[in-house]
Design goal:
Layout (H helix, E strand, L loop, with lengths): L2 H21 L3 H9 L12 H4 L2 E2 L6 H6 L5 H11 L13 E6 L7 E7 L4 E8 L2 E8 L2 E11 L4 H7 L4 H10 L15 E11 L2 E15 L2 E10 L2 E6 L19 E4 L2 E5 L6 E4 L2 E4 L5 E3 L4 E8 L5 E6 L4 E8 L1 E2 L8 E2 L4 E4 L10 E8 L2 E3 L17 H13 L11
Antiparallel strand pairs: 1-2, 2-3, 3-4, 4-5, 6-7, 7-8, 8-9, 9-10, 11-14, 12-13, 14-22, 15-21, 16-17, 16-20, 17-18, 18-22, 19-21, 22-23
The structure holds zinc ion.
Zinc ion binds next to loops.
Length: 413
Amino acid sequence: MNKRFTVFTVSFIALFFIGFFASQKIFESVKPVASTAPQEVSETYISMEEAFPYDFPKNSTLYNVLKAQDVTGSEIQQIVAAAKPFYDLAKIRPGIRYSLEFDESPDPQLKSISFRFSGLESLVVKKLESTWVAEQKIEKVELKTATFFGTVETSLWESASKANMDGLLIAELAEIFAWQVDFAREVRVGDRWRLSVEQKFVRGQPAGWGSILSAEYENAGQSFVGILFRVDGEDLGYFAPDGSSLKRMFLKSPISFGRITSGFSRKRFHPILKVNRPHMGVDYAAPTGTPVKAVGDGRVVFSGWSGGGGNVVKIRHNSIYETAYKHLSRYGKNIRKGTMVKQGQVIGYVGSTGLSTAPHLHFEFFQAGRFVDPVGKKFPSADPVPPNLMSNFSGNVPYKMSLLPSWESIIKY
Ligand SMILES: [Zn+2]
């Protein structure tokens, strides 16, 4: 094949492909990517996998591993002794990553051995002159801000999973707005959400999540914003931009007047059944007809006769908390399953229905489906940002909001 022919053929083939790509509108979009592909991870980093290339083998010992590298028994002893204050290398577990470094002599000698015990901790044992010394190293954690956003099609979980958020982070997002939105029941198609979160990096590699810094959830057209308030490195919680708490406080008691006659107990003698039975609530003695109030905003999930409980109202406050009110003589106005109630709203009246010897209210509190003692329980604080810290908080709100991805960047699909 002569040279002219070759040049002609190559040019022809090149022109053909350029024409092909151009006609497919691929060429223009391919070219810039190929020439200026962004480098997300700096090349100066050595990854953990490169830095610690070996897995400590199963059913082996440090002695066997180093003996295979022609390290003498006495040197191995010195290595173990040097490491002892930090880690007992005699009990090294299989799977621990390690690396070996040799000098450049004609007969290379081991000059250091490093172990990685966790994501952040490593130990270097190296030979200085003729003695082995150990040094513990803690990897530097770099924090960057990552963002996530999405639109709800079926559930927050599904939407956030689709945005590649891990489960713990989704749970944290739901927790921030647990008092505003009942994510199990009130989520609507088309709700949208966005957040900024600290992402940890070690040696340029993602190494888990820090705190959510700011988040917004739009539920049925209503917007809720949570801003992390951090003082001197301590996270004090999430607040609305005006400094009010995103949490709500429960009323101390569901009745205004009354005294506790029987507290929460895992074992109590039942006056009617004459047996020891746990008492998973608090009894308030009060005259028949005393108004019973909802201790928090919520939705009535049960209203009706329930055996020993007599007339019962049960309220779901959010995805975490529920309360139940038993032995009622009658129900509050319009109280039925599905009714939304406000904190302090009368949901019924004290009575003695069901298994009861005298008029009283039996009050139960549930946290994540389990009974808790409402008297001893420390509920999350619903205090706003303290006045003396308010300017500190307010000054930081615009910055935290600016970290959120713009709604415009959210592509509905
Ligand atoms: Zn009781």
